[in-house]
């Protein structure tokens, strides 16, 4: 039998700490739950449905509506969250404790959680954030390749293992909900979120929903480090006209179902615990207000029984700016949204939605359905039994094992697109110049959603730059770093130019005017090409860029995508410690005016979907890309 309900339980902590907690409760602190000592909902031996029924029978309408709020941490401290009985807290990109250390995250999380479990009902909160390529808000955490690189690797088990490692680093800090994986199907690479997609056809995003299993376990809560995963953004965020983030997907239902729905079906079949609604619209209807898609398709047709969560202030944006109105709440909740993510005004949310229920414009049944879904995930996660950070795991945050896994993923994601024999480079002898703005910049190689929302330049977190990786794997070669290729001459046996994009996220990355290399990169590449020294280009970017007019001057081209903190994985492939095995998860256009360009659309790009060379000439040709139904 589990210990009595009056003892605060710590997630996998030492018995001493738990005993200490018990002593605290006995020595003067009021009993944790003023109500009956052991109400049925606190009995972990009971069926979850029974626990939910019992708990809901004890909740007022305000208690229930409070559970439907996910508030940004900056808008409510632990006391306010507990006072209003809010269901969840979130950190938007970069919203971190100061100092931004794993220990400080665990302290912050436990502070919210302790206040929540000490309320009369003792309902723990969910704490969500975008751990989209590792626990990337936390400085020092392992940063894995962004999804487009994992799509190039195309290995479901690798993605599962990454999810598992990410969940461990999250559990160490307490955080129990990630808004990942994005299972969007990116159809127009001008979209600023292309790198968050596993690929341009439904096949790769569907196969790589193995991330859900990595994050949650085979069954949510089946291990102490199980965290709630989120399939996002439902539905059609990658289909908008012109690749405009939060734009309008003007496509028929047959295309929406054939291309964009399959990854969500797969995620639901894997038991994903939450689905996030897209800011975008489908044929002019905001997804956040689309009852057909949310309730009839997702909940009823696909049988999704988890939490439907809005995007950040997404309900408020139904009618215009981000501030919700009563009409917004009515539209979003009646469409089927269960948890509403908001930047502020949690008190107003509760009073506005209560009025909608009192006036009969939102049914009690809809509220009860939402709250049942939310409480069910909290029970399944084991939060009532083990609500706090698992500090025994802190040593694994950014630890060697996870960094080695990340380096393995970087190797697997490299796509070799051109090679006249210059690759693999010999690791011994002579001089090699390493140039380009992305050669020695952990921030650039990690991309957006890294420590901050938009990411940044320089040593934004701990890791190994591509340049440092080259020095590590080619110790017998003199490596000269010149960002702009200054001084290149025939004393060098080769030049490696690491170019591409600087970090961005969401609409900040929209490029409606085209996907081109910046002037600095073009000048560096010209200088190197003019020298006559063999040039290997490493493209660090979130998507294909225009290279057709320059690639003829290059001896090798590798798409490295956004590798994250372990840049040495790129060097492993350049110097032949590993052969390139990656394949393009998106068609590489000749020119941006071909966008959107996708497999099977009749256009001829520079490199097709599925392209990828190896060092072994005998490697079979790229597999026939799957034909869309
Ligand atoms: C953002 C994104 C979404 C993210 C959420 C919380 O605007 O659209 O992907 O999960 O807000 O940060």
From TrEMBL:
<dbReference type="InterPro" id="IPR001764">
    <property type="entry name" value="Glyco_hydro_3_N"/>
</dbReference>
<feature type="domain" description="Glycoside hydrolase family 3 C-terminal">
    <location>
        <begin position="415"/>
        <end position="615"/>
    </location>
</feature>
<keyword id="KW-0378">Hydrolase</keyword>
<dbReference type="Pfam" id="PF01915">
    <property type="entry name" value="Glyco_hydro_3_C"/>
</dbReference>
<feature type="signal peptide">
    <location>
        <begin position="1"/>
        <end position="34"/>
    </location>
</feature>
<dbReference type="InterPro" id="IPR036962">
    <property type="entry name" value="Glyco_hydro_3_N_sf"/>
</dbReference>
<dbReference type="InterPro" id="IPR051915">
    <property type="entry name" value="Cellulose_Degrad_GH3"/>
</dbReference>
<dbReference type="InterPro" id="IPR036881">
    <property type="entry name" value="Glyco_hydro_3_C_sf"/>
</dbReference>
<dbReference type="InterPro" id="IPR002772">
    <property type="entry name" value="Glyco_hydro_3_C"/>
</dbReference>
<dbReference type="InterPro" id="IPR017853">
    <property type="entry name" value="GH"/>
</dbReference>
<comment type="similarity">
    <text>Belongs to the glycosyl hydrolase 3 family.</text>
</comment>
<dbReference type="Pfam" id="PF00933">
    <property type="entry name" value="Glyco_hydro_3"/>
</dbReference>
<feature type="domain" description="Glycoside hydrolase family 3 N-terminal">
    <location>
        <begin position="61"/>
        <end position="376"/>
    </location>
</feature>
<keyword id="KW-0732">Signal</keyword>
<dbReference type="GO" id="GO:0016798">
    <property type="term" value="F:hydrolase activity, acting on glycosyl bonds"/>
</dbReference>
<keyword id="KW-0326">Glycosidase</keyword>
<protein>
    <recommendedName>
        <fullName>beta-glucosidase</fullName>
        <ecNumber>3.2.1.21</ecNumber>
    </recommendedName>
</protein>
